[in-house]
Amino acid sequence: MSDGLAGPTRAAPDHAVLDLDIAELGARLRDGRLTSVALIEATLQRIAERDASYLAFYAVASKQARLDAQKADAELAEGQDRGPLHGIPVGIKDMIDVSGMATTANAPGRREAVATADAEVVRRLREAGAVVIGKLATYEWGTVGPDKRGLFPPAKNPWSLEHITGGSSSGCAVAVAGGLVRTTIGTDTGGSVRGPAFYCGVVGLKPTWGSVPKDGALTMSPSMDHVGPMSRTVAEAALTFDVIAGKNGEEAATHLLGQPIAGLKIGYARNWFAHDPQVMPAVLAAMDAAASKFSELGALIDEIDLPDYPSIEIAAAAILHKESFDFHAEALREHPDAYGRRAFLSLAGGFAIDDAELSAARQIGREFTASVNRVLDAHDVIITVGALTTALEAAPFEKEAVWTPMRTIGFNVSGHPVLAMPIGFHEGLPIGMQIIGRHYDEARIIQVGHAFEQATDFSLQRPPTPS
């Protein structure tokens, strides 16, 4: 969908600028080699050319984006510089309010749920001069997918259109991987920022719980919901996080960018996946190679043990399902037709979890958090795998809900910041890693991830251009 603006004929946009990072785009916007208007025109044309294959966007705010780009150019010309995102297009997951646009959550009952105000993260992006380009695909209410019976068809993985995107922030990952935008805002309740990052070969940052405001973002599980950026590179994720979290100075995630990691202590949680029968040999090899690369960069690698993963996954799932059911219970009862069948069944499943089970699950979560904290007391960061496989074929998911072997949801309970990033490829599909840090220490995981990114070429790889 689009609110396309009729008007005078415009010069053909320069598509090459879309492959430049935000820092270079910003330099060109400020020295006059580029205008935000030209950047937005190039973005809109690339969306028009590629998104029929990707299906990343539910709605494109072309008219408002052009107006906002004109404003950005005028402000920069007058010397009013709002920061690194000034004049830069940003996409928003369709579970986050953008004033004047529907926040559908891909749910039948929300087709006309037009937001009357921006979510706080969107307000902060606009205050920083960013140009909101549109709303991006999600699984219904952030639950299960991909589902062809949703309000919109599922987004497609740019590396292989027949494989899954890996989670509900699907449109964010697809838009970035497919070269439509450099940075986006998603949500993560069990891995929905990180899973699509692993499977689509982009960078996802799940911040410390509570560090980014959730006002104006639809609720799934209040104690586990996070809002965070999904971007082309670690640096771009970091600067986007700083804007939406209101961070600057030594609190900023960007303040350690480019600093060497020699001497840092990295705990390698290899026990979480190395002996699992589902792990692909290529994934294990990529993680071991990543640990070796960190060692080459001077970091001290220590193989550590984290608590049994299945236990925290079961406990986290119980918390998520119970909180989601409690939030949706009245609507599920009064307006069941407002939900697709698969989302309805997923949300209703929380009815079976009683208070005693919830209490026990929360206790497991507290114990897991304490265990992670103990490891981080002795290490600067923890590294572990993102998912045990590359992206799986989409066809089985479109028939019924299928479990995917990721290692993400425990950190939604513990609230630790986690950076997801690509570390390799297998048969043309990306492999991803997680870097976990102490609470509110996004800067350290950004420093470590950026060092790895600069020492490898994985972030430079691009999927095939759709025909």
Automatic annotation (TrEMBL):
InterPro entries: Amidase (IPR000120), Amidase_CS (IPR020556), Amidase_dom (IPR023631), AS_sf (IPR036928). It comes from Devosia soli. This is Indoleacetamide hydrolase. PROSITE patterns: AMIDASES (PS00571). The lineage of its organism: Bacteria, Pseudomonadati, Pseudomonadota, Alphaproteobacteria, Hyphomicrobiales. Hydrolyzes indole-3-acetamide (IAM) into indole-3-acetic acid (IAA). Signal peptide: none annotated. Coiled coil: none annotated. GO terms for molecular function: catalytic activity. Residues 39-445 form the Amidase domain. Pfam families: Amidase.
